Model the fold of this input.
Amino acid sequence: MTYTDAHCHLLDKNEFDMAKTAGINQIICNATNPKDWQNVLAVKNVIHAIGIHPWYVSDLPENVISDLENLLVSNIDVHIGEIGLDKCKNDFYKQEELFILQLELAEKLKRPVHVHCVRAWGEMLPILKGHKDLKYLFHGFSGDKNIIHFLSDYNAYFSVNRTSKIPLIPTDRLLIESDAPDGLPSPANLPFLYMQLGVNAEQINQNFQRFLNGR
Ligand SMILES: [Zn+2]
Done:
């Protein structure tokens, strides 16, 4: 059986070795702030995403977006993430500004984006309207059926690690994530999670490959 992990934040090589032994074939590893970018890029045999997470929008270097662009230009397979909006955290205007700048960068460089959205769908959806051509992965999906409907003509995938949202998500758009170390302790726990959630690993794998390699 082939398992995939659509979202984590690990840096420890031992964790990835354990995951491989457990049958996790592909893992997407996200950075959260500029200090994290090189560390994530140094992880071998994973899919990398670098960006500015909405929790880390203060005290950024002045040229942070051009720094991000330069790093992405020299790493052509790297995605943009984790980016997004979070109403439970401070500096919401700054979050919006950086989210939009990173979506624009994703359009310019044609990279998929990995999105965090907490209690901010009302603000996020109007922003997404201006960026319909991107490939999106909404991680830890927290929306309802209206949000899924809104996003139905977007190139959008949804990753979760609990059951409650699975019935809302189209079968061909569902991904599973460990969100380690904050969600599950390790991606090596994923085979058990897949079983608990009752999802079809082959279908999830096909979705994952389509997310990576589709248009
Ligand atoms: Zn995350």
